Amino acid sequence: MMKKADKNCFDLILHQKFNTRFLLMSSLLVGGGMTTHGFASGLTNHGKVEVVSLMKTKSVQQTPIKGVVKDASTGQGITGVSVKVKGSSTGTSTDENGAFTIQGKVGDVLIVSYIGYKSTEVTVSSKADLAISLTASQDALEEVVVTGYSTQRKKDLTGSVAVVNTDQLKTTPAASAVESLQGRATGVQVVTDGAPGSTPQIKIRGYSTINNNEPLYVIDGVPFEGKLSWLNQNDIETMQVLKDASAASIYGSRANNGVVIITTKSGKSGKPQINFDAYYGVQVPNSGRFPKMLSPQQIYNLNDNKDPLPDYLLAGDVSGNKVTPADADMSKYNYADNKEEFYQITKANKAGTNWFKELSQNAPTQSYQLNTVGGGENASYAVSGGYLGQKGTVIHTGFERFNVRSNTNFSAFNKKLRFGENMQYSMTKGHGVGVNTNTAGDYIGEGSAIGFAYRIKNINSGIR
User: Fold this and answer.
1) Residue span of the structural domain in which 26 resides
2) Is 181 helix (H, G, I), strand (E, B) or coil?
3) Sign of the C-alpha dihedral, residues 144, 147, 151, 156?
4) Displacement of CA 77 from its chain's centroid (Å)
5) Is position 461 within any domain?
6) 183 and 260 fall within a common domain
7) How many structural domains compose the chain?
8) Reduced to 3 states, what is the DSSP secondary structure of residue 177?
9) For residue 463, is it within any domain?
C-alpha cells in the first residue's frame, strides 16, 4: 500500500516480515528524458516493517552548450580561449573563429579566460548560444615575457633564475652585497680572498675564459661592469641572478657570464619610516689551520750542520760558531752608510718566530646605517647614509666606506609629468698590502704578507 505524503516523500506501509535491515531501490522513467531514482530503507520492528520513507532525487541530462568569444574592442573572435565549467573538470577551448561547444546544463557557471584579457564568469540561463566578450587587461601582461632594463621578474623568464632573499643578505656582516650571495643562490660560486672591503669573484656558469669571468650587473636598469664594493647592501630592495644563456637575448653578449639584477629601495606612500641599523663584530683568524713550520734548529740541521744553533748568526765579518763574545759586543754595532764603518750584529732566534701568528690579528668590523622612507600621493622619497669600517685579519690592513643615497620621485599635472632623481655617492678607502677592492686574490696571493710568511726564515725575530 503506497500513499503520497508530499512532492518529495512517499510513505510506504509494508505488511511484510523481515529479520534484517533492508534497502529498497526503485527507478521510475518519467517524461522529458529525466530519470527519478528513489530508495527506501527501514528496520524491522518486532518482525514487521511499519513505515519506510521513500525519497526521490533528480539528475538533469547534460546537453551541448554552444557559444562564441570575441574581443570587446574589435569584435573579432579569439582563438584558444579557455572555457571551463566551474567546479568540475569539464573544459574546452575556442576554435579559429572563437566558437566553442561544451557539455553542461542550465545553471552551470562557465569560467572564460585568456592571456592578456580579464577572466570572466558566465551563467548558463538557457539553451541559446552564448555571446561572450573579453576585455583586454594590462595587468595580465605580467604573465608573459615583458622584460628589459627597467623591470625584471622571475616569472618573466623561461630560463634559470635565482631569487635572493634580501632580508637574509642583511644578516651577514659583509662589506659587499656580492659576498653575502655565498650559499644563498644555487649554482652561483662566490670566491673571496678575505681582504677587507673586497668584492669577491662570482662565477655563475663556471670559467668561460681566461680573462674576465665576472657577470653583468644591472642596477636600477643601468648595466654596470665592475666591482660592487661601493654599493651598500642595506639599500638593496631585490636581487635576482639570471644563470643561463637566455639572459643574452635581453642583454646581449655582455650577459655571457650571467646577469645579477639589483633594484634599490625607493620611496613609498605613507608615514615617514626611520630605520637605524648597527652591528659590531670581530673576525678571528683560524689559527688551527696555520701550517706548522720547521724550528730554527731543524732548518740549521738541513744544511748539514751537526753543531747546535749558535747564539749569534753574524757579527761584523764573522758568522756562525766563529762569533766570539768580543765580536758580539754591542758597542761595536754601527748602522753606517759606508761599508768600512758598517758593523752588523744579528742574534739567533733559537725559539723561532711564528710569522703567521705575528702577521694576523683579530679584526673588528662595525657598520652604522640610517635611512628614511616615506611619501604621499604626488611625492615619495628614500634617503640613506652610512659608514662601514672593517679591519683586516692581516695586520695594518683595513677598509672604510662612507655612503649617501637619495631616491626621490615627484609627479605633477595629475601625474602626467613625473620627475625625480636616484643618486648615490660612496667614498671607499682601503689601506694595507694586498687590499684592492677591484682585484680579488692579492690579499693572499704570492706577493702578499701571507705569501711571505712561507718564505721568511723563522730564525729572524718578529718586530711589529
Assistant:
1) 2-59
2) helix
3) positive
4) 42
5) no
6) yes
7) 5
8) coil
9) no
5-14, 161-170, 410-419: which has the minimum mean pLDDT? 5-14
Please give the single-letter amino acid code of residue 192: T
Q: What single string gives the DSSP state of each residue in 3-68? A: EE-SSSEEEE----B-SS-EEEEEEEE-GGG-EEEEEEEE--BTTB---EEEEEEEEPPPEEEEEE
Query: Looking up cell 567546479, which residue turns up?
Result: 87
- Convert the pLDDT of each residue in 277-322 to its tens digit: 898 989 898 888 888 888 888 877 877 777 788 888 888 888 888 8
Grid coordinates given for 275: 630605520
Query: Per the structure block, which three cell numbers stand in for 207?
Result: 670559467
Provide the 8-state DSSP code for 288.
G
Single out the residue in 97, 114, 139 at which a domain terminates: 139
Decide which of 239 and 166 is more confident.
239
Amino acid letter at 426? S
Contact yes or no for 148/211 (Cβ under 8 A): no
204 plus 310 within the same structural domain: no
Asked whether residue 449 falls in the same domain as residue 399, the answer is yes
Dihedral in degrees, nearest 10, Cα atoms 81, 85, 88, 93: -20
Cell of 134: 573579453
What's the grid cell of residue 328? 758580539
Amino acid at 389: G
Q: Would you say residue 22 lies in a domain?
A: yes
- Residue written as cell 646605517? 369
Length reported for the chain? 464
Instruction: Note whether 20 and 110 are same-domain residues.
Output: no
Q: What is the pLDDT of residues 42-73, one digit of tens each?
A: 443 444 444 443 444 444 567 888 999 999 88
Question: Across the strands, what pairs with 38?
Answer: 26, 56
* Total-model pTM: 0.56
